[in-house]
Amino acid sequence: MVGASTSDGAGRRKPGYDLDSLLRTAVKVFHERGYDGTSMEDLAKRLGITKSAIYHHVSSKQELLRMGVDRALDALFAVLDEPRSREGDPMDRLHHVVWRSVEVLIDELPFVTLLLRVRGNSRVERQALARRREFDHLVGELVAEAERTGNLRSDLDPALTSRLLFGMVNSLIEWYRPRQGLSKDEIAETVTRLAFDGMKRRQ
């Protein structure tokens, strides 16, 4: 199994890989070589194990892609299910969704990056894009609700506002790197302050 140690020809023990480590390594190689440019042989070489050891846990490269994008999507949809996202003032709920989405992006950076770079070239990618559109739609509805209650400027289009808002959040994948000295709270505070100061209804 992937989680067990293996041995090379000289009898030296190699560290094994559990499914999470396998997935993390696969996503890293996808980023380096591109999904289409990565073969199971490439993954086996990087892991230092045989292809059959990989197939013990996953059926295909496409399954690894699905697991990677689903990890990001599941974390984002979980934010929408949190009580603070569903209850109370719409503007406060929207603020919470954006703040927590920044945290998800940072915590699951390799997986969110993978999600944001899929282009719909396979069934798995098209399913991922459909779930992304569903997430965007739900956030757009929350923006519209905040507008109807008078907390949000009425001259802003809800769908466009949602896209621009999460465009700023998603841009973190281009520059954020762990151990830069910026905490999750500092980044989330800056993003939400920039966004919500401009969106609030003017008195």
Automatic annotation (TrEMBL):
The keyword Transcription regulation applies. Residues 16-76 form the HTH tetR-type domain. It comes from the Bacteria. The keyword DNA-binding applies. SUPFAM superfamilies: Homeodomain-like (SSF46689), Tetracyclin repressor-like, C-terminal domain (SSF48498). InterPro entries: Homeodomain-like_sf, HTH-type_TetR-like_transc_reg, HTH_TetR, KstR2_TetR_C, Tet_transcr_reg_TetR-rel_C_sf. Residues 39-58 bind DNA. GO terms for molecular function: DNA-binding transcription factor activity; transcription cis-regulatory region binding. Keywords: DNA-binding, Transcription, Transcription regulation. This is DNA-binding transcriptional regulator, AcrR family. It comes from Actinopolyspora saharensis.
